[in-house]
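This part of the workshop introduces the protein records we will be handling. The question running through the whole workshop is how a given chain folds. To make this concrete, we reproduce a full record directly below:
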Amino acid sequence: MSKILTMLKLQQKLNDDTNGLNWENGVTNKGKKIDWRRAIYIESAELIDSYPWKHWKNIDAKPDYENIKVELVDIWHFVMSEILRVNKIENNYSLEELSRKIENEVTNIATQKESDFYKEIEAVEGFIKKLFCNFELIDFTKSFFELCYKLGLDFDSLYNLYIGKNILNKFRQDNGYKEGSYIKIWDKKEDNVVMQEILNNFSDITPDELYTKLQKAYNKLKINKEN
């Protein structure tokens, strides 16, 4: 199975589990409107805030590239969700067909990392513009990958982080995220950071093993809070 197909299947399942079947029609099973494009541009704005672009503060600060990678993966969740929605409503390709069409476009992208972070910010803003101007499913997906490469995130790193974040999102939902009881800061670290540390320490970890390690760390956190 290709990595693109693996990610599309995982995202489809996550959306089905979180929002209910037929979420592609734009409404969750709780009757709440879904807007993936808004989610994409809001996350893109958060990504820009990982750069020290504010001329009035943190003059000597450096871009937070670890967080930039996480933000790109968050955006990818929403990009895939919009891809899946548009595909079902307008094209109705099978996931296998859709993944092949995407792979044909992204396999040979030659885009290099930008030379400075101001150009990287401009690339993010160009990506946001494309979201609302002449949106076309495959072309927009290609634009996302070009953005990743301009910001220094290669395909394999995107895939590994996506798998990690997908499992983290499932873990959050299973532990009260939607109800508001989930604890996001684990011993002064955001759960994203804990997830990345586990991936860095266990390069061959399976999705199930990652979930188990997250659960073990979270249980320990809750016990410590109770004591």
Observations:
- The domain at 1-151 is CATH 1.10.4010.10 (all-alpha NTP pyrophosphatase fold).
- The first strand starts at residue 185 and ends at 186.
- The radius of gyration is 18 Å.
